[in-house]
């Protein structure tokens, strides 16, 4: 009888183990989900590890390298044109000097924006946002950073107008996101074009990101994009708990790319799109 009871117990246990998802079942499901999760590969200022940042050559390289999106920085010229450049002066990335806000578009267009990187790119010029949208709408996702917007009153409306002129004010199939370190500017843009997703950029802060901050971002933002130095699995989980996604920046080595894939980032902003390889 004893033997029968213990045989029965083993049988019951076996049946339970078969039907109940054990720890391993969850573990392998978790792995599968991670492997299948689509992580956006976002080329920072274009594929700026391989071509001069924020030029058509860098955006073309991003598309060639099959990045899902490219990031760019937008500012305004003296005569009110939207130009794609990172620094608030032209000194580092062109053969000219002076502040972006003090130069006309014509003056900026006469500059060489490629030779500082390599002579092979001597023909590159500072693009306008309109030129980039003309060329890449429908070919690539575009992550637009409003750079130093407090220097350019009205830039939010201008960017909104440019997106609207390109029928990108209600993006459906196209992936367009607008972001800034200036969160007031992000809110201003969001009020003008509420259907375009927006993100808040955050630099490193040793105090981390509080729930109060996340609660307030959630009122208008879809993305919280901190420096990669702030990221761990728990921050990503908290951002997701507040129903937002995260695209940390800026990856310049394979180890950081692998780390961000492992902890579940939704997108990775990188100078080297080939470093982001989500395959298991
Ligand atoms: O997209 C994030 C990243 O571009 C922010 O830093 O200085 O490269 O504009 P920065
Ligand atoms: Ca940027």
UniProtKB/TrEMBL annotation:
<protein>
    <submittedName>
        <fullName>Glycerophosphoryl diester phosphodiesterase</fullName>
    </submittedName>
</protein>
<feature type="signal peptide">
    <location>
        <begin position="1"/>
        <end position="27"/>
    </location>
</feature>
<dbReference type="Pfam" id="PF03009">
    <property type="entry name" value="GDPD"/>
</dbReference>
<dbReference type="GO" id="GO:0008081">
    <property type="term" value="F:phosphoric diester hydrolase activity"/>
</dbReference>
<dbReference type="InterPro" id="IPR030395">
    <property type="entry name" value="GP_PDE_dom"/>
</dbReference>
<dbReference type="InterPro" id="IPR017946">
    <property type="entry name" value="PLC-like_Pdiesterase_TIM-brl"/>
</dbReference>
<keyword id="KW-0732">Signal</keyword>
<dbReference type="GO" id="GO:0006629">
    <property type="term" value="P:lipid metabolic process"/>
</dbReference>
<feature type="domain" description="GP-PDE">
    <location>
        <begin position="39"/>
        <end position="280"/>
    </location>
</feature>
